[in-house]
Amino acid sequence: ASKHYQGKVSRQTRCVKLNYAGEFHIDIVPCIRSKFLFTETENVCNRLTNEFESCSSIEFSKWVRKKNAVAGNNNLIKAIRLCKYLRDFKQTFSVKSILLTTLLASRITLSEELFGTDSFKDLPMALKTLFNRLDEWLDEQDEMPIVNNPVDDDENFNRHWDEDKFQNFKKQVKKYNGWINTAYHEMDKEESIKGWRKVFGDKFAPEATAKAVEKQKSLPSHCERLRWPMANSPQKLNVKAVLQKDKSSVSIGDLAAYNTIPKHHWIRFNVKDTLDHQTSIFWQVVNTGSEAANDDCLRGKFFQGSTIHKESTLYRGTHWVEAVAVRQGVCIARSGPIVVKIA
Fold first, then answer.
1. What is the dihedral of CA 14, 138, 226, 86, to 10 degrees?
2. For labelling alongside 100, which of 197, 256, 325, 338 has CA 20 to 30 A away?
3. 151 and 232 both lie in a single domain
4. Is there a single domain that holds both residue 244 and residue 310?
């Protein structure tokens, strides 16, 4: 009846939807609260069935705030917003916001509530952690599970879901989880931004940031990108590097103790972690500088080796070596570049 809202409102099953200009709307839900002795109940109205339905809006909000406090820095709420944006931007899966919120917030464990956690210390890590755990949980569900309100067992959030929507959601989460892991673990900043744009679209990272990234030195063209997908929770591969006078002589000191290394020495790299027989070690040696280039020895490709690898300090320049652990075609751990400066 109000001229202010003509053409902007519609009646839904349990709410009135108020549409704003642009991609935004608010659902206004009438809620009836009743109190009997020491018990308070909340019900919403189902227009189609003409019945009341139990809800616990205040308690549910408290539950989400508690999970958000465990994550810290409002990172759970921010990650949930990103997931809703992903849903609306990609439009490859359908899931109601309250169901998505419940699925994501439930990935924060009781142990983390009691003892704390550092798995959500920044927003990218929080998003990656939640998607990793959601993907693992979905893998355990052969068919659509019933997702109850965590504070009200009489209410479930499956009313807009069915088996086909669930199976599609499971498939899409696995795809986006792989993209998120790749973007998160990419060591080159420009390539990482490209990875996040694959997830969230070309609007990710403002133009000023993109220009700043373009000015940064990217990886040399002869440096092979990581060819294996990253595991959900890759580990740090511990590699000890020592300097030797000759290839077979004893150590004369840790590599980290030297700012620069003289030519005509050897460096011994040793993976210190215990690995099972299904895990293979690959090494990458990247040379730079005119001496290596003139000798056609810039290298940069990954090659399979053992837990011990030796390199000679033959060329002047700033070079680096990295070890990665691969199991069943997935990178489960990497050392990160070990920089070697040869004078």
1. 0
2. 197
3. no
4. yes
